[in-house]
Amino acid sequence: MALVHIPGSKSITARALFLAAAADGVTTLQRPLRSDDTEGFAEGLARLGYRVGRTPDSWQVDGRPQGPAVPEADVYCRDGATTARFLPALAAAGHGTYRFDASPQMRRRPLLPLTRALRDLGVDLRHEEAEGHHPLTVTAHGVEGGEVVLDAGQSSQYLTALLLLGPLTRTGLRITVTDLVSVPYVEITLAMMRSFGVEVGREGSTYVVPPGGYRATTYAIEPDASTSSYFFAAAALTGGEVTVAGLGEGALQGDLGFVEVLRRMGAQVEIGADRTTVRGTGQLHGITVTMRDISDTMPTLAAIAPFASGPVRIEDVANTRVKECDRLDACAENLRRLGVDVATGEDWIEIRPGVPSGAEIKTYGDHRIVMSFAVTGLRTPGISFDDPGCVRKTFPGFHEAFARLKGEIVG
Ligand SMILES: O=C(O)C1=C[C@@H](OP(=O)(O)O)[C@@H](O)[C@H](O)C1
Ligand SMILES: C=C(OP(=O)(O)O)C(=O)O
């Protein structure tokens, strides 16, 4: 049996940093995630003139409801889509000229529905090279507010960026959504806005965000549920038992729902008040599952799928093609490298039972490809990675933590 302490949630840390920066006083964030994405977010805030004090276990942010403290800034968002999509919205509420650039992969990832919506709200936003991609410049003069229509069928982060901006506008926002993926991430946004004093209303597919700003607070960050998926999958795959502390019934993150997928496949799952346990049973059934709501865990499932007794078919995950890499293709390619029979379509992947044999995994710089196939490695000797260090995006200490887990549950 292993009791695992997982680092803080990337999504919650990013939102907390935005909310703290926009709030009316000093906010303390307890147990934030320290990783490339969240350090990049904090550094972006610092570039915009916010004071972010960092100790290992807590970060303090001096909020500025009036927006960035500097008239000009050049912000490098690294590989983090939360940084690259949320910070331009924060900057728009201020006064100044703010340029945002990002890694080559983040430059390729889409952004247009968000930047179009910001322009519809009167924000002066220019893309420097390709329309709808970084680098971009916001010439900010505050945002009046009003109504906007948004297609968030490719990424819920567009909607989160606008929701977070809403209370910073003069009259509030009415955001009508025509399509939406990753719905639980929007629920995280709404719950966290509530913790910072803002209640968002709903009228059908319209989100009604009042003006008035955020209240500073002390905010404790949950462990990351997507990261936990590798540890839960390890238990299901090996017949071991893994308990993740700090993630239970009240958890904000939809990705904790991955344990329900494992339950359907034959694992035993216990969700307690403040912890979740997965126990492998030696059984791993095939399954057809929709992962539109929890698509960051698609590679986790793909990586253990060959060991199931029947085919594993994962549907409605088209947007995994526009993440840190094209994850459907990357999963299929790597499973084939291991000798596994796989088929993919535009928005699905099907993995057939097989006995993987060791090979080098092509990571495409994607942390989730590494962490997922590390789980396969528990049952497959000889798996290596062309870029194991890319786990730094969300979990710099992954390899050490996973080796410890392996010692405890496999021996
Ligand atoms: O808002 C967030 O924090 C996130 C939303 C999801 O993205 P999409 O909405 O683009 O699917 C998820 O994949 C990403 O890792 C984090
Ligand atoms: C898709 C991811 O990250 P982001 O979109 O925040 O860059 C992820 O962490 O799997």
TrEMBL record:
One of its GO terms (cellular component) is cytoplasm. One of its GO terms (molecular function) is 3-phosphoshikimate 1-carboxyvinyltransferase activity. Its main location: cytoplasm. InterPro entries: Enolpyruvate_Tfrase_dom (IPR001986), Enolpyruvate_Tfrase_sf (IPR036968), EPSP_synthase (IPR006264), EPSP_synthase_CS (IPR023193), RNA3'P_cycl/enolpyr_Trfase_a/b (IPR013792). PROSITE patterns: EPSP_SYNTHASE_2. It is an enzyme of class 2 (transferase). It is found in: Cytoplasm. Keywords: Amino-acid biosynthesis, Aromatic amino acid biosynthesis, Cytoplasm, Transferase. Phosphoenolpyruvate binds at residues 10, 109, 157, 327, 368, 393. Pathway: Metabolic intermediate biosynthesis; chorismate biosynthesis; chorismate from D-erythrose 4-phosphate and phosphoenolpyruvate: step 6/7. Pfam families: EPSP_synthase (PF00275). Its EC number is 2.5.1.19. The active site is at 296 (proton acceptor). 3-phosphoshikimate binds at residues 10-11, 15, 155-157, 182, 296, 319, 323. It catalyses: 3-phosphoshikimate + phosphoenolpyruvate = 5-O-(1-carboxyvinyl)-3-phosphoshikimate + phosphate. Gene3D superfamilies: Enolpyruvate transferase domain. Residues 4-401 form the Enolpyruvate transferase domain. GO terms for biological process: amino acid biosynthetic process; aromatic amino acid family biosynthetic process; chorismate biosynthetic process. NCBIfam families: aroA. Monomer. Belongs to the EPSP synthase family. Catalyzes the transfer of the enolpyruvyl moiety of phosphoenolpyruvate (PEP) to the 5-hydroxyl of shikimate-3-phosphate (S3P) to produce enolpyruvyl shikimate-3-phosphate and inorganic phosphate. This is 3-phosphoshikimate 1-carboxyvinyltransferase. It comes from Streptomyces griseoruber. The lineage of its organism: Bacteria, Bacillati, Actinomycetota, Actinomycetes, Kitasatosporales. The gene is aroA.
